[in-house]
Amino acid sequence: DLRHFLRAAAAGQPGPSPELPPESGSTPGAPRVYLETYGCQMNVSDTEIAWAILQKNGYTRTKELHEADVVLLVTCSVREKAEQAIWNRLQHLKALKARRPRARAPLRIGILGCMAERLKEEILHREKLVDVVAGPDAYRDLPRLLAVAQSGQQAANVLLSLEETYADILPVQTSAGGRTAFVSIMRGCDNMCSYCIVPFTRGRERSRPIASILQEVRMLSDQGVKEVTLLGQNVNSFRDLSEVQFQSVAAPGLSRGFSTVYKAKPGGLRFAHLLDQVSRIDPEMRIRFTSPHPKDFPDEASVLQLIQERHNICKQLHLPAQSGSTRVLEAMRRGYTREAYLELVHHVRDSIPGVSLSSDFITGFCGETEEDHQQTVSLLREVRYNVGFLFAYSMRQKTRAYHRLQDNVPLDVKKRRLEELIATFREEAARANAALVGQAQLVLVEGPSKRSASELCGRNDGNIKVIFPDTELEDAAGCGALGRAQPGDYVMVKVTSASSQTLQGVPLCRTTLSRAAASH
């Protein structure tokens, strides 16, 4: 379940995404919209979709809250803290609305996304502050909803769709000049894990046609984007049913020890086909994907084989475990045991030497005992992840756990267990990263380091942050003058030190993805 974002999971709480830049070329007199994004990367993608729709309907973008005629919050419901952040933000917007000069049209406020889907009635009726409520499948309806709100009425659309993928809407990339991008390949989820609200806020799983995904990736390549992450709640169950000739293809079998709560789904072009096609578009563009589900790595190793073979598919996998206890995994309805999960980890490491692994964990789930917790601690030690996303359990209404289980682990116990998991993860990640000291790593430059203007920051193939001095560098081809690395450049960096979250190093040369692959 998708990107509970927290690189070291230190605080275990979501927050707003960075403010996004306005679109250039705004039209005088056009209504100005201010968008704010909370929660997972899927919401960042949704923000780009919503903005693309509004832009086509005559809206302009502002990054200044006081300039806005419309404020839209793209929200998250995964944990209670995520929703509380929105309620707090609404109190601030209430004051802004009250102070607005009468000469200006009233400020319209909208709640979009998962919280809109989950809490429509409460949002509309609590203090009558919110004008528009739109669920994740209703963004096409935003212009109409905002027109209704302009007449002084509240407007809502939280209908979930079995078909909507926004396939025909090319998102407007909101990171101006950015060198990395996220491409949504599917929406919704059918897994029905007992703790998870996503199937109830984002609906049933449906995949976007491959042709429209390839069109978007080509467009990003033309814009100079150097890294694309394919995005979905469960990317490796992707199946494009848009082409008739592939609708009778047999469903892939699950590996031994894995199960689903739904019947096998025959037909369609699968994730391995998509990954193959995407990776062929631009040999200088890195490809990542998130989040896969452990059950959807079948014994036929086509996806793992592609990762191993293609130089531009990152040797990095997100394998969300959630718990190290088979008993808890069963209560969560994850569809695998601890043993099956570990077997998959060994299979992945055998198939892709040097692979970087990341995972999600929930601590304090219903009925979790101290022994269950220690099994999770031992799984963290045994697998030694490079990156971890760890959270204390937060019960959500509508989920199976809410109806069938008791949230009976005290909050202080959840906090203590979370601290233990974080400490264990960091210890093991520091060891995993220390193994890279002395090695050369290919780094995609993102920009200046936050800590020092004299250093650059980027990520290696395993998605680990790498910091190195910003100095004049030779080109690996040996031609051309010395030059400083720019965002979007690939730099070979020799690692000199490591922590649980970051690698430090010295730059060797500027290079390309293809050249670096050929020299290894």
Automatic annotation (TrEMBL):
The residues covered by the TRAM domain are 434-509
Q: Does the keyword Cell membrane feature in the UniProt annotation?
A: no
Any one GO CC term of this protein is:
mitochondrion
One GO-annotated biological process of the protein: regulation of protein metabolic process
Which GO molecular function, any one, fits this protein according to its record?
metal ion binding
Transit peptide keyword on record: no
Provide the alphabetized UniProt keywords. 4Fe-4S, Iron, Iron-sulfur, Metal-binding, S-adenosyl-L-methionine
Q: Which residues form the Radical SAM core domain?
A: 175-431
Q: Which InterPro entries match?
A: Elp3/MiaA/NifB-like_rSAM, Methylthiotransferase, Methylthiotransferase_CS, Methylthiotransferase_N, Methylthiotransferase_N_sf, MiaB_methiolase, rSAM, rSAM_horseshoe
Pfam families reported in the protein's UniProt record: Radical_SAM, TRAM, UPF0004
| Record's catalysed reaction(s) | N(6)-dimethylallyladenosine(37) in tRNA + (sulfur carrier)-SH + AH2 + 2 S-adenosyl-L-methionine = 2-methylsulfanyl-N(6)-dimethylallyladenosine(37) in tRNA + (sulfur carrier)-H + 5'-deoxyadenosine + L-methionine + A + S-adenosyl-L-homocysteine + 2 H(+)
Cofactor section: [4Fe-4S] cluster
Q: What is its EC number?
A: 2.8.4.3
State the NCBIfam families in the record: miaB-methiolase (TIGR01574), MiaB/RimO family radical SAM methylthiotransferase (TIGR00089)
UniProt family annotation: Belongs to the methylthiotransferase family. MiaB subfamily.
Q: Which PANTHER family does the record associate with it?
A: CDK5 REGULATORY SUBUNIT-ASSOCIATED PROTEIN 1, MITOCHONDRIAL TRNA METHYLTHIOTRANSFERASE CDK5RAP1
- Name of this chain's protein: Mitochondrial tRNA methylthiotransferase CDK5RAP1
The species this protein was found in: Rhipidura dahli
Organism classification: Eukaryota, Metazoa, Chordata, Craniata, Vertebrata
